[in-house]
# Entry
Amino acid sequence: MENRIQTITSNKNSRIKIGIIPGHFATNHSHVNYYVDMTSIKTSHKMANEAAKELAGTYSSTHIDTIICLEGTEMLGAFLAESLASQGINNGSDIAVVTPELNMNNQMIFRDNTQKQIWGKQVLLLISSASTGKSIVRAVDCLKYYNGSLAAIGAIFSAIKESHNIPVHAIFYAEDLPKYDSYSPSTCPMCADGRKVDALINSFGYSKI
# Structure
């Protein structure tokens, strides 16, 4: 499958790249015709730094106290906090970077020692990929429980443009990929054609079937 990978370069910064593999892939919420590989942005400090700078410019007039990192975006979140704190309305701020824990019911929770970074704070939700927006909905429910205020949403890749009336600012959008499509499992045309699923995918990567 890896020999089908294609490189997509950001039209804003040529040093930021993702990989895409065409096929039939299943996520927890949908079936998609591309696996979007964001490993380099998540693991390379140079690319994560470049990506953070691109996102930071979007929030120069948005007050941010805390960044909640989902789906392995902690390194990106740390660089984003650094970039935000060096410009605009957040210049000189000390921005917290936290990650929720998943309990046995797959619910997002924060322990007592980190709740103070959420309670009453202006929060930027950072996610690697938003294909349907359901992961964002779950995160926002968690945020409400801990009395945090959703101020912004950032992503590496997003197929949606907004959630909860807040724009989803991403480095790559669906239109940057050639004919990206996402379907519910019950309406997937690839399934209807009898095409087998190539791999199961989540924020950690993919597992071939």
Observations:
- The mean pLDDT is 94.
- The chain has one domain: 2-208.
